[in-house]
Structures are given as structure tokens and as C-alpha cells.
Amino acid sequence: MNGKVAWITGATSGFGAATVERFVAGGWRVVASGRRAERLQQLVARHGADRVHALAFDIRDEAAMRSAHAALPADFAGIDLLVNNAGLALGTAPAQQADLAPWKQMIVTNVTALVTLSRLLLPTLIERKGAIVNISSTASTYPYPGGNVYGGTKAFVSQFSLGLRADLHGTGVRVTSVEPGMAETEFTLVRTGGDQAASDRLYAGAQPITASDVADTLWWIANLPPHLNVNRIELMPVNQSFGAFQVHRQ
Q1: Beta carbons within 8 Å of 62's beta carbon, 6+ residues apart
Q2: Distance from first CA to last CA of the chain, Å, rounded?
Q3: Which of 8, 55, 199, 224 is deepest in the core (most CB within 10 A)?
Q4: How is residue 245 annotated by DSSP?
Q5: How confident is the model at residue 185 (pLDDT cuts 50, 70, 90)?
Q6: What dihedral angle (degrees, nearest 10) is formed by the CA atoms of 140, 143, 147, 151?
């Protein structure tokens, strides 16, 4: 082990789970947080409690977050890297038909929880000249019908990352916004309320980004020389590109 510690949120599936695997394989200790305790315990069972420390709580619960942080064992308390991966999209309806509750859930999860954990860990990250990697999305730049609040939250994540870079000038802390496009994880299942057929249709024949692709990208970013910062990196599968503007004709 190299002595470094990463805190990875949303570690129970998709990008988060793959990133845990990649960093443990690379010799890091990992604080793995997420809602599904049984999946977190599987990570601990596979890698050992000396390599993975599981924190089961809802990222929206600030009190639980603070308690979990305060109780970190000494071997996991020195956080060198925060990967803000936890997030979700809910629904595909146009704004005028969407329910307000899912919008609020996306804002609290993708924005409020992310900034809360970031602020909580900043003193340690500054002390250790660490790094923050925020998982944004191509939806932060390229709007699409039904993306509304999800795209808005990810635009916040990208801009917040740039703002952190400005504020942390001179501290040695690196900040990166990673903005993936189409990726086949549980993302669409969550977005559609568990519609496997919808997920299968979306990814069929597209050769989308995989969770391992993103984990490898995060590994590369985290292990760059300390004088280099990747401000933002946008990833798309080759088979995804940019569509024409919409034109409504009378």
C-alpha cells in the first residue's frame, strides 16, 4: 500500500464501485460510502477491512455524514482524494410535466450533499495537498429534452469545480470536473424507475462508456504529478456525438 486514502461516494454501483476496485488494486485505502450497506460489506469482504472502510448512509443526511466522518479510524482519516461520485437523474419528462419532488431530490443529492462533503473535507485536503474529483456530465454543457434539472445540477458541479480551483489557489489542492457522456451503469434504471427495457434500448449497439473506463480515468488524474491539474475532462463514446439544433415549424 502507498499510504494514500480516497473517499469515494456512491460506491455501491457504477462508477463508484469500479473506482473502489481500481484504487484498491493500485494500493490505496478507500473510504467507500453509499446507501446500500450490503454492497459496501461485499467490498470489505473482498478486499479486507484494512483496505476498505464502509460508511453506509444517505448522502443527503448531513448529520449522518458528519458522524461518519468524525468516526473514521486513524488509518482512513487522512483523506488525500475526494471523489464526489454520488448523484442521480430522475425522470425524463419535460419541465412542464415533471413532478417537483424528483427535482428537489436531484438538487439535494447532486448539489447540496456534494458541497457539504467537500466543505467538510477541505481542511484535511488542504493539509495533505490532496485532490477533489467531481463527477459531472456532458449534460452540464449540452442540453437535451427532459434533461432540465439534472443538467442544471451537473452544470453547477462543473462550475463549482472551477470555483474551488480559484479559491484553493496556492494550497496545492487539485480539483477536476470529470464529465462523461453515455455510460452503461444503473443510471438509466434509476432514472426510469427500474425500466430494464428502456435501459437496454438506450445502450443497444452504442458501445457506451463503461464504469471501468471512468475508473481508469480517475486513476490517471489522481496519479498525475502534483504540479499538474486537469481542470475538466469530457468523455464520450466514439458512437456518441452532437445532434442538430431543434427547429419547430408552424
Answers
A1: 113, 116
A2: 65
A3: 8
A4: P
A5: very high
A6: 20
- For residues 159-186, one letter each, b for 16 or more C-beta atoms within 10 angstroms of the residue's C-beta and e for the rest, the string is ebbeebbeebeeeebbbbbbbbbbbbbe
Q: CB–CB of 51/103 below 8 Å? A: no
pLDDT of residue 244: 86
188-197's contacts with Cβ under 8 Å and 24+ in sequence apart are 190/88, 190/89, 190/90, 191/88, 191/89, 191/90, 191/91, 191/92, 192/92
Query: How does pLDDT run across 113-152, given as a tens digit for each residue?
Result: 999 999 999 999 999 999 999 999 999 999 999 999 999 9
Domains and CATH numbers, the chain: 5-235 (3.40.50.720)
Q: Which residue is associated with the grid cell 471501468? A: 212
Q: Are 142 and 242 in contact (CB under 8 A)?
A: yes
Catalytic option among 142, 144, 150, 203: 150
Its pTM stands at 0.96
Rounded distance between C-alpha atoms, residue 25 and residue 21, angstroms: 6
- The answer to whether residue 144 is catalytic is no
Instruction: Give the burial class of 94: count Cβ atoms within 10 A of its Cβ; 0-12 exposed, 13-18 middle, 19 or more buried.
Output: exposed
Owner of C-alpha cell 453506509? 56
Backbone angles phi, psi at 118, to 5 degrees: -60, -50
